[in-house]
Amino acid sequence: MNFALQGSIELGIIYAIMALGVFISFRTLNMPDMTVDGSFVTGAAISVVLSMNGHPFLGLLLSFIVGCGTGCIAAFLHTKLKIQALLAGILAMLALYSLNLKIMSGRANIALMNKATVFSEFEKLVSGDYSRLIFAAIMIVLCLIVLFLFLNTRLGFLVRATGDNDQMVRALGVNTDLTIFVGLAIANGFVAVSGAMIAQYQSFVDVAMGVGMVVIGLASVIIGEVVFGIKSLMRRLIAVVLGSILYRLIIAVALELGMPAGDLKLVSAVIVALAMSTPILKKQFATMKRRHFSHQRSKKSLQWKE
Amino acid sequence: MLKLKQVSKTFGIGSSNEKRALDQVDLTLQSGEFVTVIGGNGAGKSTLFNCISGMYEVEEGQILLDDLDITFFPEYKRSRAIGRVFQDPLKGTAFDMTIEQNLAIALGKGQSISLRPGITKKELDFLRERIAMLDLGLENRMKHKVGLLSGGQRQALTLLMATLVKPKILLLDEHTAALDPAIAKKVMSITRQIVEEEKLCTLMITHNMKASLEFGTRTIMMHEGRIIMDIQGQERKQMTVDLLIDQFESRSGTALDNDRMLLG
User: Fold this and answer.
1) pTM of the complete model
2) A153 pairs with which residues across the strands?
3) Which of A9, A202, A237, A269 lies 20 to 30 Å from B122 when distance is taken between CA atoms?
4) pLDDT band at A214 (very low <50, low <70, confident <90, very high)
5) pLDDT of residue B47
């Protein structure tokens, strides 16, 4: 099979940054944050606009900062205005669609023609076939370290505890509104950086490129958990990255086998739906089995009576 | 010192289910007092706690803690001076974090939030020393997730967390009611030990009439949102469970219908 193995791994690593963001909101903060579909494009748009003006690295940095801001929108709607988390995210995502168009000066897509990107700049330092892979790897390692260190600070403890048990956090004197702000800000900061890197990787940004991003992130998180385990925090984080790479490989194989590209989102949705319902399905299957056998037994005992 | 002045709370105002859960409650707790609270279902015990801790906003009245008016303080702000243990063992700890991480969060109560390391070596030694006092062997399981602990162990841990930074007042809401009798007894003895050592001002709801007289220095009884009995000192020493039931029935004008209170 000669599908683009290296390309899939590169994409998997870059999308893994987004998946880490989804991990923070869904797993650490235990909040379904739909902002991701919007903030991913926000990051992409900002980085493309800045790359057009010759500042690709600044583009990454700024996309992180603005990404954090987009997370704060959802956090504000949820904590201060008491809108359900899911709806708060959807509202933020919707608002971001318009904002993203504004950043892109009203155009639905922009191509970076022969402009310098972080990848082309890095290639000047480290040339060769693996240049892009190495840069992506450096970025993901950086993200992993930063995230791991953050989650082990006192503030990081509080964000994690908020996801576990917000009542306890308030009972210990900490404003959970604040920890939700921090968590969602960082989550969307990561998502935006991922979007920024994808845009520069493809030299292209489209205002609709974020559709279904949450689901892809979630699929990566779940695949990672199932395949690589959830023992320690570091292992969980690495599992997310590996899950993202695995997801890209699965997609690449599927495409290679002739699946139309248009079916991609359907497949992602099915993967997540299956993974999410695994515990319930297992339980129902066990009950069915029990019922079936007890039914058979009772039939037998009736026969004996006769 | 905690002071409640004419505190009232009504649920479902304007609806057909309107219920006055607290009816102009006056209560003063001196520092160092250990007050037990008894009463039937719906008497307003938990509502009283939730109004003090800030989970509910009161409609009328004032709540003062050391002469500071905390009536309109948000829950988390009050929590810096209030320690709480809930009835449900799952409510007091973060299940997916380790024992030491839970304790570290409790140790940071009242400190400003920062990017300092979550837990330092020195803090860990201190915490290990403190948790050893519970005599549950948890000091050797500091890196275990709290989700792996039993209900009793979690309640003991919650109790330690609530008192790690000395609170001005400790609220215990039937914190042993969900535990096995043997473990409940152990948690109660830990409670007594911590409260006495730290000389904590404590308010404890219990459904067990015997325990309400056995523990603490003062007992109050609630009925329909009011405090109908408040005994301490000599009067309390001479009180028995039977007398308490008589008192309840004469003061509330109803028969005690709560088996749990009698059997406990």
Assistant:
1) 0.90
2) B117
3) A237
4) very high
5) 93
| Interchain contact, B97 vs A161, CB within 8 Å | yes
Average pLDDT over residues B104-120: 91
Question: In this prediction, what percent of chain A has a pLDDT beyond 90?
Answer: 74
- CA-to-CA distance for B235 and B216, rounded, in angstroms? 14
Taking residue A44's Cβ as centre, other Cβ atoms within 10 Å add up to 31
- The reply to whether residue A154 touches residue B79, judged by beta carbons under 8 angstroms, is no
> Residues of B numbered 74-113 whose beta carbons fall under 8 angstroms of chain A's beta carbons: which are they?
74-77, 79-80, 84, 86, 90-97, 101-102, 104-106, 108-111, 113
A3, containing H or E segment: none
Q: Which residue of A has its CA nearest to B110?
A: A173
With a cut of 80, say whether residue A3 has pLDDT above it. Answer: no
| Closest residue in chain B to residue A154, using alpha carbons only | B118
Which amino acid is present at B53?
S
Distance CA B4, CA B50 (A): 13
C-alpha separations of A88 from A74, A110, A157, B36, B218 in Å: 5, 29, 24, 43, 48
A249-285 residue pLDDT tens? 988 888 888 889 888 888 888 888 887 788 788 888 8
B160 touches chain A (CB under 8 A): no
Helices (H), chain A: 5-22, 36-52, 56-75, 85-103, 118-125, 131-151, 154-164, 166-171, 176-202, 213-228, 233-256, 264-305
Tens digit of each residue's pLDDT (9 = 90 or more) over B35-66: 999 988 888 999 999 999 999 999 999 999 99
pLDDT computed for residue A221 by the predictor = 93
Return the exposure string of A130-151: e unless at least 16 CB atoms fall within 10 Å of the residue's CB, then b: ebbeebbeebbeebbeebeebb
ipTM of the complex: 0.90
With an 8 Å Cβ cutoff, are B94 and A161 in contact?
yes
List residues bridging with A204 in a β-sheet: A111
The answer to whether the Cβ–Cβ distance between A171 and B162 falls below 8 Å is yes
Between A and B, how many CB-CB pairs are < 8 A? 89
Q: Which of B78, B113, B154 to mutate to test the interface with A (most CBs of A within 10 A)?
A: B113
The answer to whether A168 faces chain B, any CB pair under 8 Å, is yes
A166–chain B nearest CA distance, Å? 9
* pLDDT per residue as tens digits for the range B188-241: 999 999 999 999 999 999 988 888 898 999 999 999 899 999 998 888 888 888
H-run or E-run covering A2: none
Q: Which of B52, B73, B75, B112 to mutate to test the interface with A (most CBs of A within 10 A)?
A: B75
Which residues sit opposite B34 in a β-bridge? B202
**Whether A176 and B76 lie within 8 Å, measured CB to CB:** yes
Measure Cα distances from A252 to A268, A274, B81 in Å.
Answer: 13, 20, 57
CB-CB under 8 Å, A165 with B94: yes
Find the residue in B nearest to A233 (Cα). B97
- A186 is written with which tokens? 């960082």
